[in-house]
Write a structure and sequence with these properties.
about 300 residues, membrane, transmembrane helix, LysO, L-lysine efflux transmembrane transporter activity, transmembrane
Length: about 300
């Protein structure tokens, strides 16, 4: 477990040490992150396509991902709305100018298409393509390193993180309720609880969860983790503005780890600058927790 934890935490910490104001460099980092993400999803798709009896496993993957997503997000909503009602903090002003959702959905469709392309390549090349051992892990290490650079250069300071108590509490509640949802999904699907806890530990970070789960239990479970976490991003695009005015912690909490990247424009434009410190603090918590939780639960023998 320690080795796996070091593999994901050391690259992030090394990346976090790099601070730059060079716009060209930071733009290049963003592009590299996307390319590495596409590479990871393509490799996972190949692994999925090369599974034995893959046709019979696809419906199981889809149903399992749906049950995990429904249980986890359902538990998130219950826990976060309870927190918002006990500690109300309605917005003074509602944001505006929300970006077109079709553009954001197109980005999610691109991610799914990489898995599909990889799946087709793997399906028709079972005997001709053999991926190097640990290929996805090496790509993941590079990805996490550049994500660390993004975290450092997105204006996130430890002061902002530590002094926004609501953001920290929201992150903790979202994490705990996600794990509870994972336990519920595991019981419904008759899976070991450790698998349910591991799959629910991604908190929306699909590139990390899919690789760690894939390495632990194979492409079938890696795909379940990917679609479970990707569904959070898609759902949050629609529900964040709905909850934002009266339930700001619920709105931001449903974004999970994507609160610092993909869904940040929705958060900022639907809630205004008033909610940005909360989103930053929450996003930092939900980007630090997944590497630790995923490695811990996936290393427990079934």
């Amino acid at each position: 477990m320690l080795e796996g934890l070091l593999i994901v935490l050391i690259p992030m910490l090394l990346g976090y040490l790099i601070k730059s104001k060079n716009h060209t460099f930071l733009t290049a980092v963003n592009k590299i992150v996307m390319l590495l993400l596409y590479a990871i999803l393509f490799v996972m798709g190949i692994s999925l396509g090369q599974l034995d009896d893959v046709a019979t496993k696809l419906p199981i993957i889809g149903l399992s991902a749906f049950i995990f997503s429904a249980c986890i997000i359902g538990c998130n909503i219950v826990g976060l709305i309870t927190f918002d009602k006990l500690n109300p903090a309605p917005l003074k002003h509602l944001g505006h100018d929300i970006p077109p959702r079709w553009k954001l959905l197109l980005d999610s469709a691109k991610l799914c298409s990489m898995v599909l392309i990889g799946f087709l390549v793997g399906l028709f090349s079972k005997n001709s393509i053999n991926l190097p051992f640990g290929a996805s892990t090496y790509v993941l290490i590079a990805l996490i390193f550049f994500v660390g650079i993004q975290l450092r250069n997105n204006g996130i300071s430890l002061r902002e993180v530590l002094f926004n108590k609501r953001g920290i509490y929201t992150g903790m509640i979202m994490t705990v309720t996600s794990l509870l949802g994972g336990i519920l999904a595991a019981l419904l699907l008759k899976l070991p609880l450790t698998q349910g806890l591991a799959i629910s530990s991604g908190l929306g970070w699909y590139s990390l969860s899919s690789v760690v789960i894939n390495n632990a239990w194979g492409a079938e479970f890696g795909s379940i983790a990917f679609f479970n976490d990707l569904s959070r991003e898609i759902i949050s695009l629609f529900v964040i503005p709905f909850f934002m005015f009266n339930y700001r912690s619920t709105a931001i909490g449903l974004a999970g780890a994507t609160a610092l990247d993909c869904t940040l424009p929705i958060i900022q434009r639907s809630g205004g600058m008033e909610v940005v410190p909360l989103a930053i603090s929450f996003g930092f918590v939900t980007n630090i927790a997944p590497p630790i939780l995923l490695v811990f639960f996936s290393s427990i023998p079934l």
